[in-house]
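So, could you explain this one?
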Amino acid sequence: MPFKSYVVLLKLRIGAMIALSAIMGYVAIAREVRALEIVALALAMALGSAAASMFNHFYDRDIDRLMKRTAGRPLALGLLPRPGAVLPIAAALLVGGLALALLAFNLVVAIHLFLGAFIYAVVYTVWLKRRTWINIVIGGAAGSFAVLAGGAAVDPGHWALPTMLAVTLFLWTPSHFWSLAILLREDYARAGVPMLPVLIGDARTARAILANSVLLVGSAALPWATGHLGNAYGLISALLGAALLAGNLKLARTPSPVWARRNFFGSMYWLVGLFLAVLVDVNWP
């Protein structure tokens, strides 16, 4: 299998989001941001994410063949004669991430990294994905542990603000992924994966996205409401939340692929914007 195919197995986009989430947790409580620590944290989290993603490719290769979006994945195409050969690589990536977390930071960071990878690879992929619509709801905890790891990299005892941000990340995943699931409803139905749109349709899923986003926007306001972050964060968070809810409302009124796609990408922009809000606030004079 060519090198490019191995890169596909790493799901680098997810790894980047996990690393960004960890950096947000770090920046939120760090009095002094150290570039080497940021690099080490991002790399450790990316390695853990890559390990879980590679296992996900291995375990889901059968249903990946049934879905248009994933049919071209390397293991779904059978490009590797022995698919199990990727498992030692995944294990090595995870061990590398854990070792880096321990050497550069502390045991708490390593535990959060392991739990994030475990939830994505085992709890979501193996246990929940093919069984229940709450698969992605619980699976969203993987991103939450990344935020907690970032906070623990600075001070494991300073948990309040990272926990609030972790709750926000937990609530972000359903709004983000259910929008994608509307676009891929036929794929998931074909593969027998009980994603929410398959079970209740696009219209009711759109309303569920809106309801979840109300909780999401409310949770994002908590760091400001409790005084852990200042007015700069509060203002930017409020503006981001208003834009997200406006898009969700349009999707609820017109549950079409066009608005589902806009909400999918809009939720990504929202998350990046929230990170920038934290960054601006902690550096506000």
Notes: The mean pLDDT is 95. Residues 196-225 form the longest helix (30 residues). Residues 51 and 90 are 4 Å apart (CA to CA).
